[in-house]
Design goal:
Length: 598
């Protein structure tokens, strides 16, 4: 059953949904919502069926009340048995509400919860497909707000539709039909209320949508600032800047408070206008039916019946208008979610060449790179041949293009001119997901998740043996650390590895890279943030890591790359010099100047 549920989630094809979406935001949101419920229409149908059955007391009670009043007011033409029949009928109809209401909620919940999980699953898959550039531009706090708050708002929208919209529509239809069966004149009066409700929604719709959008964007902004504040707490406390951060957060909260108040006021005007309008209609209905009874055109008991039906209609329409602001929030959250799902900034791998093996030869052929919206080249006329198993170090001042070259090797960036080839094949023609199986990356700031050391080392590799783990631990110079810890490999590292030192985290990252037995190693300033003792241990681990593998290193400490096969000196996006450590020192060029500065 779980496998079926999982497969159903995977079939949520948001690309197809939006390819067919119209330019109208509301129509697009409605299409999106309907598309999510494909495969769940049976549950929805059963839920609506039980909704009608369980709502029967609401439909029947005005009729029974009218019957009892008419029987009581004309005892000569009725027997006491008629009263008991009406009482028995309404009692049975009321009691059946217990099982039918439970079934109504059960089938509804099954559909809605499936959709809620489906949206989050779609967002997670899309986030994994989006380009690294997209993730760099979009703050993590905003993403969290979309995945958590906006999906929850869409779930609430679904509940409002099932708990308010559909019951209201059914109640209105049933009330008008039952009234029409008794009096076309009264039912015609009832129908007039529908244009009034449409007019109210039309008047307030744009204002509600606008204030909802502003409030939602401010929530995302606040979430982003909150996320940054939590990350910055060690720096804030260390520099005594608590009040600065509190004031920054308070500014955001005050803005959010103001936008929230404006939203509340708009909804208050909307709700009050709704209440006054329909109370006025209720009084008109009472006067109208009383006038008909006064003229003898309907029995007196029918006044109560028509008031009951009209009250049902007004209650339904009023309920719809009352929940409209919440539904508007749900539709606004759909627009927020679709900002992610509609994004075209994804990595396209379908139909590309799947590499079953690589040697590790790389060729940079007149590579150029310009970021969108930027006139200046990040890389310009970069040409370099790298042999399999060779260790290449990139040095240069900040902004020279060193890390950009590593991102080209990983496939995070595509050159805007020239090409990067692996084993003679253009990376642009390669399925990067398969290609990256042969890579391991050790960045400057390693990201560990809040699991055990074992789980962080074997991340994504379920079939790793104990022998492989021990070998990786030994090669990463982690044995002494593991032995000192009370739980060894099962020690929890804390969020982002917060319970470990920088050097310890870096060696765990190296063990994670080693256990994958990669063909290509990428080290991005892997020792720049470490003290001398930690750097010594990490350097020993790195020597094991790069043996026999094509290695790309970015380093600021020039002493750490003395043993590199070649050093490439970058300057303003170009290659200024290439050679061994000793050759470049003897040349007394750019590399020599950098070494002298250190």
């Amino acid at each position: 059953m779980e496998r079926v549920e999982r497969n159903a989630l995977n079939k949520l094809n948001y690309d197809q949904t939006f390819a067919q979406a119209s330019s109208s935001e509301e129509k697009s949101a409605i299409k999106f919502l309907i598309s999510l419920y494909r495969g769940n229409f049976m549950n929805l149908s059963l839920s609506l069926f039980f909704l009608i059955i369980k709502s029967a007391p609401v439909y029947v009670l005005p009729i029974v009340t009218s019957n009892i009043i008419n029987i009581a007011s004309n005892p000569g033409t009725h027997a006491t048995r008629d009263l008991w029949i009406n009482f028995a009928v309404i009692s049975v109809i009321i009691l059946q509400n217990i099982p039918t209401h439970t079934w109504y909620i059960s089938f509804m919940s099954k559909a809605i919860r499936h959709v809620e999980a489906g949206i989050r699953s779609s967002l997670v898959r899309k986030l994994q497909q989006l380009s690294i550039t997209y993730h760099r531009d979009l703050q993590a706090g905003r993403l969290q707000a979309k995945v958590i708050r906006d999906v929850e708002a869409v779930e609430q929208l679904s509940k409002q539709l099932m708990l308010s919209l559909f019951p209201a529509i059914i109640n209105i239809i049933v009330a008008i039909v039952l009234t029409a069966m008794n009096s076309w004149t009264v039912s015609s009066f009832f129908v007039v209320t529908i244009p009034a409700s449409i007019a109210l929604v039309t008047v307030f719709r744009k204002k509600i949508r606008k204030t909802n959008k502003e409030f939602r964007k401010q929530i995302e902004q606040m979430s982003s600032i909150m996320s940054e504040m939590v990350e910055m707490i060690p720096v804030t406390r260390a520099h005594g800047l608590e009040n600065v951060e509190i004031e920054r957060m308070d500014d955001s909260l005050r803005t959010l408070q103001g936008k929230g108040q404006r939203l509340d006021i708009v909804e208050a005007y909307f709700g009050a206008s709704n209440w006054v309008t329909f109370q006025f209609f209720q009084v008109l209905c009472l006067m109208f039916t009383a006038f008909l009874a006064f003229q003898g055109k309907i029995p007196v008991g029918n006044i109560v019946m028509y008031q009951g039906f009209f009250g049902m209609i007004l209650g339904s329409v009023s309920g719809l208008i009352t929940v409209y602001p919440n539904m508007a929030k749900g539709f606004e959250s759909i627009h927020s979610i679709t900002e992610i799902l509609r994004s075209k900034e994804i990595e396209h791998n379908q139909g590309k060449l799947k590499l079953s093996e690589i040697r590790g030869d790389f060729s940079f052929q007149n590579v150029q790179l310009i970021y969108p919206g930027n006139e200046h080249h990040v890389l310009e006329e970069v040409s370099l041949e790298v042999k399999a198993g060779e260790c290449i170090a990139f040095v240069g001042e900040s902004g020279a293009g060193k890390s950009t070259i590593l991102n080209l090797v990983i496939g995070f960036l595509d050159p805007t001119g020239g090409k990067v080839c692996v084993d003679g094949v253009n990376l642009a023609e390669v399925d990067l997901r398969e290609y990256r199986r042969f890579l391991s990356v050790v960045p400057q700031t390693n990201i560990l998740f809040s699991g055990t050391i074992r789980e962080n080392i074997t991340y994504g590799l379920p079939d790793i043996t104990e022998q492989q783990i021990r070998k990786a631990v030994q090669m990463a110079n982690l044995e002494e650390l593991i032995e000192r810890l009370p739980n060894g490999l099962e020690t929890m590292v804390g969020e982002h590895g917060g319970k470990l030192s920088g050097g310890q985290r870096q060696r765990i990252a190296i063990a994670r890279a080693l256990i994958r037995d990669p063909k290509v190693i990428i080290l991005d300033e892997a020792t720049s943030a470490l003290d001398n003792a930690s750097e010594f241990h990490v350097q020993k681990a790195m020597q094991e890591l790069i043996k026999g593998r094509t290695t790309f290193i970015v380093a600021h400490r020039l002493s750490t790359i003395r043993d590199a096969d070649r050093i490439v000196v970058m300057k303003r996006g170009r290659i200024a010099e290439v050679g061994t450590f000793d050759e470049l020192i003897a040349r007394k060029g750019e590399f020599y100047n950098l070494k002298e500065l250190q």
